[in-house]
Amino acid sequence: MLRIENVKNGNVVTIHIRGFGERSNEIMEKYIRKGVKAAIDTLKEGAVYGGGIAKVAVAEKIRKEALHGNGKYVLAMEEFAKALEDAAKVISRNMGMDGEMAVSEMRKKIRSGEIDEGLLRSYPLEKSEIERAAETAIMMLRISDVLSAKPLVKRRVSGGGGGVIIYTSTGCPYCRKAKAYLRSKGVAFKEINVSQNPAALQEMIRKSGQTGTPVIDINGRIIVGFDVARIDAALKK
């Protein structure tokens, strides 16, 4: 723990880092920078109770809202609340406490309104973590809607309109290989990234009958994955 207090000139502070080597110093510098930024953000925008209790409070709110929902969305909300509480359990275990007991005590404090948790955490940091988790959950629900909208029947698509279309996703290594191979063959193609495009994802599923990438449409002939032999065969026809 690094604590700085009674600084005479608050505009300029020098921190000397001593580690076990250059790599160690780099890691320490990285975390000190993150800590300083978190402290500045806290001073600007405030803090919330730490130790995982803020996550448990959000989980409690989600469960209350779930009482007014229905279907799979209620299940998704419950799973999201559970995931937030699991994160709080990990934090508690890292502090040497029993995770289940700690979260149970947090729930009691939140419901009674008698929160006396001494730990504080940057509000922007806590808010950012929960928002990112929520965005992931929403995207999963959207993908679920797409998958249930059409039967996953694999079929050959005729009348593809000509040309080559490759459906890709962010971070897919085989998508990169497939694109590089097509370029090496001098083949012009249209790339469609389905990661954040539900309509394009549904189109790809309709053509291929599955959700993996890449999917290559060569004049209506559908190729799933980076299959050089099938790509070459389709290009010859």
Key features of this structure:
237 residues; alpha+beta; GROEL, domain 1; Glutaredoxin; 2 domains; two-stranded antiparallel ribbon; 8 helices; 6 strands
Instruction: List low-pLDDT spans.
Output: 150-161
Q: Any idea what the shape is? A: flat
Question: What spatial order of strands do you see in the largest sheet?
Answer: 4-3-5-6
CATH superfamily of the largest domain: GroEL-like equatorial domain
Percent of residues in helical segments?
55-70%
- Tally of strands: 6
CATH class of the largest domain: Mainly Alpha
Counting structural domains, the number is: 2
CATH topology of the largest domain: GROEL, domain 1
Mean pLDDT: 80
CATH architecture of the largest domain: Orthogonal Bundle
Distance between the termini: 67 Å
Question: How much of the sequence is in beta strands?
Answer: 5-15%
Taking all Cα atoms into account, the compactness measure Rg is: 26 Å
Give the helix/strand layout:
Blueprint: H1 22-45, E1 47-49, H2 53-66, H3 71-94, H4 99-112, E2 120-122, H5 123-149, E3 164-168, H6 173-184, E4 190-193, H7 198-208, E5 215-218, E6 221-224, H8 228-236
Parallel strand pairs: 3-4
Antiparallel strand pairs: 1-2, 3-5, 5-6
Helix pairs in contact: 2-3, 2-4, 3-4, 3-5, 5-7
Could you give a short description of this structure?
By secondary structure, the protein is α+β, with helices and mostly antiparallel strands. The protein has helices spanning 22-45, 53-66, 71-94, 99-112, 123-149, 173-184, 198-208, 228-236, and strands spanning 47-49, 120-122, 164-168, 190-193, 215-218, 221-224.
